[in-house]
Amino acid sequence: MATKSNKAVKISQKHLLGIQDLSIADVNFILNEAKQFIKLNKSKNKKLDTLRGKTQINLFFEPSTRTQSSFELAGKRLGADVMSMNIVNSAIKKGETLIDTAMTLNAMHPDLIVIRHQDSGACNLLSQKVNCSVINAGDGRREHPTQALLDALTIIEKKEKIQGLRIAICGDILHSRVARSNIYLLNMLGAEVNIVSPTNLMPEHIEKFGVNKFSDMKKGLKDCDIVMMLRLQNERMTSSFLSSNREYYEYYGLTPEKLTYAKDDALIMHPGPMNRGIEIDTNLADDINRSVIREQVELGVAVRMACLKIFCT
Amino acid sequence: MKKQYFLNANIIDAHNSLNEVGGLIIDDNGLVEAIGKKVNKNNIPSRKKVIDLKGKYIFPGIVDMRVFVGEPGYEYKENFRTLSNAALSGGVTSVVTMPNTDPIIDNVSIVDFLKRRGRDKSKINIFPTASLTKNLEGNNMTEFGLLQKKGIIAFTDGIKTIQNTRLMSRIMKSAYDLNSLILQHAEDLELSKNGMINDGIIATKLGLQGIPDLAELVIIERDLTLLESIKCRYHILQISSAKSVDIIKDKKQKVKFTCGVSINNLSLNENDIGDFRTFLKLSPPLRTEEDRTSLVDGLNNKTIDVIVSDHKPEDEEQKRLTFAQAATGSSGIETLLPLSLELYHNGSVKLETIIQALTSNPAKILKINKGNLTIGNDADFCIVDINKPWIVKKEELISKSKNTSIENKKLQGKVTNTFVKGVELFKL
């Protein structure tokens, strides 16, 4: 009971649907909690019993490797019973609506539902229909809050702060939930955010979210502390957003040469999975002095453990 | 039928430039016998039973130019009976039905069926449209001439737009020859592809694919350019943006055409979508507050001729989905007038302008003798308590589908009685 009342004081939301809903206090609370798990995840015995007896359902409507395994591992390390729903074999493929699926799962009394869905707002809809907490693992192009939180934690671990840093987010902003969540979070934490994208992949009125927008990498990366690259979906070529991979790489792919526009100690981030040779030079992606892509995955588990612990009902 | 006498009403009949306190006499055939200030206590035989309206308003029955009825094919959403009951409760006595049914209204034989159903099941006047192209495919035009002879009043692809410019010019030429009326839903379907709401800050925030106002503008510009050469009867069903208002205002100086707006776009904006409210997924989409006020200005300066309900009943299952999957459209025929009155109560639009856009203007465009209370015409009218406050409750809606865009909205003004051909078919 003590932990429950503690939770009520510390987090303002029942669900983790998006960074938009969180206060700075919420974010700091989650990040501080996550820091405690970093060490644990490196130790030999990684198992806790924080969520023993709790049921976590992972509901993934979209294919995902790292996010799904990260959430699964996070739940298991906290001692929860984790069930991952395979949508390909489920009733949803037979025409069941999201609300009906929600009602069915709700009847099984889960304590947490982690959802990824191709439609923006799907997690909001789900959260209205179930009793337990819902954690958004990515909805359409709207939000991917745990990704932004793990990105923030990675930056803090490496740069010791976020306040005052200049951070460039580059690539397909229009279709990116990672970009949106990061814009909200990094802005909230006091960074200056540059958005770099071809105009065809730039959302309307993005500047009203308090970012600087550029369609030129050279200008967008100038004096940046962090260069965050986004994945470019292949289908963007077929629908005429862009002409070709090679032209995209020429103008928007991160190369050692383009990285020189940023600060000398600028770090490279990428939410994965990467398209080597399209949005990022393959050697650069593996450069342990510049790239923190591996750390992002590592800290992802810690951040998700923190979120599961905090939001579990 | 007995003669009926109504006294002490505020009568607005824009067609006859009538805006005065007076009375209305309906003869024993359900026709208007006398109307206006000269109808008062002194010139009615004292033995007759008169109804004192005590300052309530009398408007001609509303002519709603954009209504989707589920018959045939989607009777579970709305049929002629439920539609007419809903319409009557909102003072609507004539509707123009869209051809987007199953089967689509695109040939003569289906029109016979439609007219029969309309006549047997509907209590209001049904004016059916047929599609511009067969099966709404945008390839081959329908038989405007033969369909007109069967009673089709206008042609439209309803929720679709002719994309092919050559076909559009040929449609206009045929419409010119046959004096047919084209009702265009203006939307470049490639620009709006997969779009759900206005392309702007809300779309970016909610992560929803946007529909740019350019999608509407390019079709309007294209059609009006064609219209300068091919002078057929042409009406834009509904516009949604400030840019559209500007171009229409400009083009109206040069070429003859008319245009409408949905009451949703006049009353709501994209912010009302809030946290993924699927009932506000509309076509055209709700746009910014600047767009909305621009539409209101357009109504005031006669750039916009008509207000429609864009009544599109959808069963709840089609709305209880994610925003991307949810059906488009809202049910609104019964709230068309009360919601329009909001524009009067908040001082944006004169009452006479609103009534004109709901009655005489659409009738004039459609060339039907409705939307007026001229002596000798059918007494289609409604009695309205324009100050009566009420709240829109989903469960109290009469339409078969409850997908209102204004649930729980506080409105001022309610229809208390509706008459068609002198018969009272709705009473509050």
Question: What overall form of chain B do the CA principal axes indicate?
Answer: globular
**Share of residues in strands of chain B:** 15-25%
**Biggest β-sheet description of chain A:** 5 strands, parallel
Biggest interface, residues from each chain: A-B, 25 and 20 residues
Helix content of chain A: 40-55%
Provide keyphrases for this structure.
heterodimer, A: 313 residues, alpha/beta, five-stranded parallel sheet, globular, disordered N terminus, B: 428 residues, eight-stranded mixed sheet, four-stranded parallel sheet, 12 helices, 23% strand
Describe the structure in your own words.
- The complex is a heterodimer of chains A (313) and B (428).
- By secondary structure, chain A is of the alpha/beta class.
- Chain A is 41% helix and 14% strand.
- In chain A, strands 7-6-5-8-9 form a 5-stranded parallel beta sheet. In chain A, strands 2-1-3-4 form a 4-stranded parallel beta sheet, with helices on both faces.
- In chain A, helix 7 (177-188) links the parallel strand 5 and strand 6 (192-196).
- Chain A is globular.
- By secondary structure, chain B is of the alpha/beta class.
- In chain B, helix 5 (201-206) links the parallel strand 11 and strand 12 (210-211).
- In chain B, helix 7 runs parallel beside helix 9 (289-300).
- The interface between A and B is medium-sized, with 25 and 20 residues.
